[in-house]
Amino acid sequence: MVPQKKLWREMDFSKRTNWSTQLNPLAQKTEELRQDPDFLNLTVSNPTECGFSYLQPSLLQPLLDPANLCYTPDPRGLLSARKAVVNYYRAKGIFLSVDQILITASTSEAYSFIFKILAGHGDTLIGPAPGYPLMDYLAEINDVSLHRYNLHYQKGWAIDPKELRCLPKAKAALVVHPSNPAGNYVQPHEQDALAAWAGKHQSALISDEVFYDFHFGAKPSAPSFAAQNDVLTFTLSGISKILGLPQMKLSWIVITGPEAQRIEAMHRLEIVADTYLSASTVIQNALPQWLDAAPAIQAEIHQRIRTNRTFLQKSFENHPAVEVLEADGGWTSILKVPGIQTDEEWALLILEKSKVLLHPGYLFDLSENMTALVLSLIVPEKAFREGLARLSF
Ligand SMILES: Cc1ncc(COP(=O)(O)O)c(C=O)c1O
């Protein structure tokens, strides 16, 4: 019999999916340790694995709505769901119409839909470094190239508007607001510089705001891009983060900007969405009630991220060689560690010595700037503290 691997080799798969399936040493070691009772994973970002008490069976009550027995799809999303999204932004002082909202099954799907209407084979988009790893895959499977612009660190991460002005033409600029993993909100002057760049190049802006509500201070340090009306702008969010319900699969796109452009963008998105109709009726019907529960859910997640962040800062405040980088929000924190070895070597050493998993910074395009490790702030407090106590640099 021909071995499986050989059969695979003889199949002519698309080049865009020729990814390596080999586990690197860090992934191999993690697999080995997964069942070890002493293993502590400080990278967990799935809120359903973090012991939150908002995850009660009562959350499932809206799923029993008899309206779920009917299927009346709308490619833009059910009106009741779009109204609930309009209300979510109204509470932030942003007034939108239901015609500016398109519901998707996930934020990743929203990115893909937008890439499809903006960019063709080989076109370029620009996105931040450090940045969130899925962006590269999303660009790749949509046959577009993602070029990076840098966020610079100086007591907080920021875009250099001079660097932005010199960037070549691209179909769109992506921002993550606040950044995963850097935690900076895109400040108003940076938003202006991005809008000026987009205006100059007839490009669009795409703002991923899944972490927008998770600010460390009293409120987000900059407005949402859903208030941007000068250039065509797509603002993305969804319930995987703002309600801590990734399993429910519902996100949205808000389209703002010059009227003719946003109407045309919506028309095109609607046809892409109609091709899949992937957002579930059941989940869309539940959205208004779930968004009503947002304050309680977010209060619990806020409490966790703020407690963990404070503990992290205290743990390293007098450390001569390790720095907890400044940030304003999000679910992650970056630890700058000594450059005596690579971030990958640090992560592997810590895993082998202490059975604690941290992300090496290169996963987030951090390696060029500094040697860094990234950890999740939603890990249950006890595990978070124990994990940090085991670290030594
Ligand atoms: C910045 C950012 N955007 C989008 C997503 C994906 O969101 P969704 O689950 O809605 O696809 C993630 C997931 O971790 C993320 O970190």
Which descriptor suits the 3D outline?
globular
The quaternary organization reads as single chain
- Average pLDDT number: 95
Attached small molecules: pyridoxal-5'-phosphate
Spatial order of the strands forming the largest sheet: 2-9-8-7-6-3-4-5
What's the alpha carbon Rg, rounded to whole Å?
22 Å
Largest sheet: 8 strands, mixed
Determine the structural class based on helices, strands and strand pairing.
alpha/beta
Low-pLDDT sequence parts = none
Total strands: the figure is 14
Share of residues in helices: 25-40%
Cα end-to-end separation:
52 Å
DSSP strand (E) fraction?
15-25%
Order of helices and strands: HHEHEHEHEEHEHEEHEHHHEEHEEEH
Number of helices: 13
In short:
The protein is α/β, with parallel strands linked by helices and 393 residues long. It has 13 helices and 14 strands.
